[in-house]
Amino acid sequence: MTHGIRTDTHSPYFNSGRSWRDTASRYALLPLRVFLGVTFIYAGLDKLTDSAFMKASGTGSIGETMRAVRDSSAIPALVDLALKSPVGFGYAIAFGELAVGIGTLLGLLSRLAALGGALISLSLWLTVSWSTDPYYFGNDLAYLMAWLPLVLAGAPMLSLDAALRARRRRGSGYL
């Protein structure tokens, strides 16, 4: 007769009746949310505080970057649109990154924030990092993929969305 370890049961975690696996599953997206939120806040602030970036021309400017990637991007028309007002486009990206980062970090309108992050990452992948070879050296595609679980699941734990949802349930009598 052989004896083995049962893998279908888990010991309770903190006497809550939940296993450590259940708890880990509930909080699994939190590190991703924190990373993406902080990264996008930093990216937005970095653009807003970089005096060279918010210019139509010159080394390190948004305009120069757009002109450099125009012919190698997947959608040159998108770059042409940005080149009509490169400074305006730079501000739009910077404030978009800030809004996405804050929403993601706080978990406020988290699915919408994640969708915004995915769209920013998609547009940057199709323009700025499209010609990166091999493709996996470009980080915008990886960011796009990282946003997708948050688009699908939102921020179910430690978020303003969850707090508002709980408050609505208490107010309606459902627990």
Give a brief outline of the structure.
With 175 residues, this protein is mostly helical. The chain is 63% helix and 0% strand.
Account of the protein in words:
The protein has 8 helices and no strands. The protein has 175 residues and is mainly alpha-helical. The longest helix is centred in the middle third of the chain and has 21 residues. 23% of the residues are buried.
| Structure annotation, total helices | 8
Q: From N to C, what is the helix and strand string?
A: HHHHHHHH
Number of E-state strands: 0
Low-confidence stretches: 10-15
Overall shape: it is: elongated
Classify the beta-strand content into a percent band.
under 5%
Largest sheet: none
Mean pLDDT value = 89
CA gyration radius, whole angstroms: 21 Å
Report, as a whole number of angstroms, the end-to-end distance.
48 Å
The helix content, as a percent range, equals 55-70%
Q: For this entry, what is the oligomeric state of its chains? A: single chain
Structural class: mainly alpha
